[in-house]
Structure formats: structure tokens, C-alpha cells
Automatic annotation (TrEMBL):
<feature type="transmembrane region" description="Helical">
    <location>
        <begin position="346"/>
        <end position="366"/>
    </location>
</feature>
<feature type="region of interest" description="Disordered">
    <location>
        <begin position="383"/>
        <end position="415"/>
    </location>
</feature>
<protein>
    <submittedName>
        <fullName>Uncharacterized protein</fullName>
    </submittedName>
</protein>
<keyword id="KW-0472">Membrane</keyword>
<feature type="transmembrane region" description="Helical">
    <location>
        <begin position="7"/>
        <end position="29"/>
    </location>
</feature>
<keyword id="KW-1133">Transmembrane helix</keyword>
<keyword id="KW-0812">Transmembrane</keyword>
<feature type="region of interest" description="Disordered">
    <location>
        <begin position="240"/>
        <end position="289"/>
    </location>
</feature>
Length: 415
């Protein structure tokens, strides 16, 4: 049973490392393409057309882009912002319609577009956007003086309901949350497509054949031990080096991996497996090859930034798999093209599917398999002790004959 668990652990380690590379590529593409901002701009444009059906799609997109490139909302370089709150959306509409945006804003609405926006607001109960906005700000300030315990968004929401009570606010409050839900669904669908694409690129670039890996793990005990050791090292590594580590549902102490020079596991006097320096650890870690143990047990470097460390960890882990011969990085060897005739296409397709599950899935699978392996190791040690311990005299019958053996020879008649 432990062999099966070790095989599953080895697959989880390989998929987790490859999934981290896919995650890095996916984040890079979504950031460069600004997919969050584009989907949000489309959603806000749909909301504006819902408020005023006579508004053209081009005009709605122009207003939504002006909102998301506002200095208080946009990203660096006036890229489309990816977050906007309902109160911000309402007040910025009033702000843009009143012409209070900076003159040097390259995405500032033209005078004709601003007049169209002002007419839309007027049809929905806001005749003077500038005065209404000033009243909202003044009332929010009064609420801050009289009720400082209220949150900022609560104060501004109350101020809008009090000073800008109109069909515009009613429509925005009624449809904003549903619009954001649709935006999230579209962004998720796009991200999944990007993830599948990046998974395909990674699988082809490293020639990741899942079927070949399973076959090798089934017959190579040293490879299984090396990947199980790597699983322990990955479990000790913080998931997000840029933020404090969150407490897991099952609290367990985080202990550093054993010294590289020390034996990875040894036999106790009773035949059980024991870790050096960890007498309370029942499961033990299997021995790994000396050439790959250093990469698995090396402590993380503290002299580099968290973001650079995350990227360097992915590169180091991929090189680790390359040293084990599980992958073949593009450009790392001259035999990359020649090895394609050995690759199973079904194994590549299976790898793409498994990588598409994402790094969080494989990290959770790795943790669960490590817990299960610990339970099985405890039972295995208990059974080994039971087999190796001699039968005590208390377990023998009174006559001295071992239980279960037939009594031979003549027996006298008692009494």
C-alpha cells in the first residue's frame, strides 16, 4: 500500500511543480493583456446601456473606459483598473458628467460625449450632477462627524441615498452586483482557456509524459524515494512568500528537513523506522539519491525578494525534475527533438488535463497524501513490531505447550 501512496505522491510532486510554472505563465499573460480590466470595462458598458437603452455601445465603452482610467481607479500608466466599488461608480459618473476630471487626462471624455452622459443622467433624475455630487460629499462628511464608527462605504452609500435619491441610483444599486457576477464568470472562463493553453505549452516544452512517469515510478524505488523526499520539502515551503502564511485547517508543526550529511532514515532496535533527531516521528522519510537530496532539503534563501524567490523556486524545481530525467526542458539538451519518438501522445494529453486542475489542487492532494502516508507508516511499524516480537510466557498455555499445537503421545486416566 505504501508503494501505491509513494507513486501518487511522486505524480503529485511532478504535477505541482509543473502547475506552478503554468501559474506563472497564466499570471504573466493576464497581467500583460489586462484581461481583468477589459472584462470590467465591458461589464460597466453593459450596465450603462441597461440604465439608458438608447445609449450606443461605442458611447458606453467610451464612458466605461473613462471611468476605469480615472486617476483614482486606473493602474500604472493609466491602464484599465480592475476594481471599482458601487459608490465609486456612481460618484465618478456624476464627476465625469460635471466635467471635473483633469484636463491633461488622455482618456477624458469629449464635450459632445459628456453632454450625452449628462442627458442620460437627466433622464434618470439627476439634473445637476455637480451640485448633487457636492451635496453627497457634504452629507458624507456630516456622517463622519456624527457617526465615526460607520465604515467609509456605508457613509457614502447613505449619502447617495439621501442626496442623490433618483432612478439612476435605484438602477445602479439594483443591477451592479449582478453585473459584477457576470464579469467574474467571463473572466474565469477566459482564465481557464489561458490556463489550458499555458498547460499545453509547458507540457510540450518539457515533454511531460504522465504515463511514462507512472511506469518509471512503478519500477524505480530510488525515484520514488527522491520524489517523496521532495514532497516533504514542498510541504514545508510557504505557499505564498509575499504574505503571512495562513493557518491550515489541521495544525501541525513545521520542522526543517534533516541534514544532508545525516542518514535519512535508520532502523531502531525494534526494527521500526526512525528519523534522526525526530524520535516522535513515526513515518520517516525514504532515502533519496545523494545528487538530488541537496535540492530537496536546501533551506530557502532569505537574501532575495519574495517575487523573485517564487520564480527562482519554479526554475530550481524544474531543474530538479530534469536531473531526475522526468522531463526534458526545451533547449537544455541536444536530444530534445530526438526524444519525441519516445513520447506517448496519450501521456501528453493526460498531462495537459492534470495541469489544468491547477496548483492549489495538487498542493492539497500532496498534503492529503502525506497525511495518509503517515497513518499507513504507523500501522506498518506496529505490524512489524508484532511480527518480530517473541511470544511471551503469558501467551502460552499452562502445560507449556504452545497454543495451537496438537498434544501427542499417551495420556493417563486421571481420577
Amino acid at each position: 500500500m505504501l508503494k501505491t501512496i509513494d507513486i501518487l505522491l511522486g505524480i503529485s510532486v511532478v504535477m505541482l511543480i509543473a502547475s506552478m510554472a503554468v501559474t506563472v505563465l497564466t499570471q504573466l499573460i493576464t497581467d500583460v493583456a489586462n484581461t481583468r480590466g477589459k472584462h470590467l470595462a465591458r461589464g460597466l458598458g453593459d450596465l450603462l446601456r441597461q440604465i439608458d437603452p438608447s445609449l450606443s455601445r461605442e458611447m458606453a465603452e467610451q464612458v466605461s473606459r473613462a471611468l476605469l482610467t480615472h486617476p483614482m481607479i486606473s493602474h500604472v500608466g493609466q491602464r484599465l483598473g480592475a476594481t471599482i466599488h458601487r459608490e465609486e461608480f456612481t460618484k465618478l459618473l456624476l464627476d465625469i458628467a460635471s466635467g471635473q476630471t483633469p484636463r491633461d487626462d488622455k482618456n477624458r471624455l469629449s464635450d459632445s460625449a459628456r453632454q450625452i452622459l449628462a442627458k442620460m443622467l437627466e433622464k434618470n433624475g439627476i439634473e445637476d450632477p455637480a451640485t448633487t455630487l457636492e451635496n453627497v460629499r457634504a452629507y458624507a462628511l456630516q456622517l463622519e462627524l456624527s457617526h465615526p464608527e460607520l465604515a467609509t462605504n456605508v457613509r457614502h452609500n447613505i449619502a447617495l441615498l439621501q442626496e442623490a435619491n433618483s432612478r439612476l441610483v435605484a438602477k445602479i444599486n439594483g443591477w451592479f452586483d449582478q453585473t459584477i457576477d457576470r464579469v467574474s464568470e467571463r473572466f474565469t472562463a477566459t482564465t481557464r482557456l489561458i490556463t489550458v493553453t499555458c498547460s499545453t505549452v509547458v507540457v510540450v516544452a518539457v515533454q511531460l509524459d504522465t504515463i511514462d512517469i507512472i511506469n518509471r515510478l512503478s519500477v524505480d524505488e530510488g525515484l520514488r524515494n527522491a520524489l517523496v523526499q521532495k514532497a516533504f520539502a514542498l510541504d514545508l515551503r510557504p505557499r505564498d512568500t509575499g504574505a503571512p502564511e495562513k493557518a491550515s485547517a489541521v495544525s501541525r508543526p513545521k520542522t526543517p528537513p534533516p541534514s544532508i550529511d545525516a542518514p535519512l532514515h535508520m532502523k531502531a532496535s525494534d526494527g521500526t523506522t526512525a528519523m534522526p533527531g525526530r524520535s516522535d516521528e513515526p513515518k520517516g522519510k525514504p532515502a533519496a539519491a545523494p545528487g538530488v537530496l541537496a535540492a530537496a532539503a536546501a533551506p530557502p534563501l532569505a537574501s532575495i525578494s519574495p517575487a523573485d524567490k517564487g520564480r527562482s523556486d519554479v526554475g530550481t524545481d524544474l531543474e530538479y525534475l530534469q536531473d531526475l530525467g522526468l522531463i526534458n526542458l526545451l533547449g537544455s539538451s541536444k536530444g530534445w527533438l530526438k526524444r519525441w519518438h519516445e513520447v506517448n501522445p496519450i501521456g501528453l494529453i493526460l498531462s495537459v488535463f492534470l495541469l489544468s486542475l491547477g496548483a492549489p489542487f495538487w498542493y492539497a492532494a500532496l498534503q492529503n497524501l502525506l497525511k495518509l502516508r503517515g497513518v499507513l507508516a504507523v500501522k506498518d511499524d506496529a505490524q512489524r513490531r508484532e511480527r518480530q516480537s517473541p511470544q511471551t510466557s503469558a501467551e502460552r498455555p499452562a502445560g507449556g505447550t504452545p497454543a495451537g499445537l496438537p498434544v501427542t503421545g499417551e495420556r493417563g486416566i486421571l481420577g
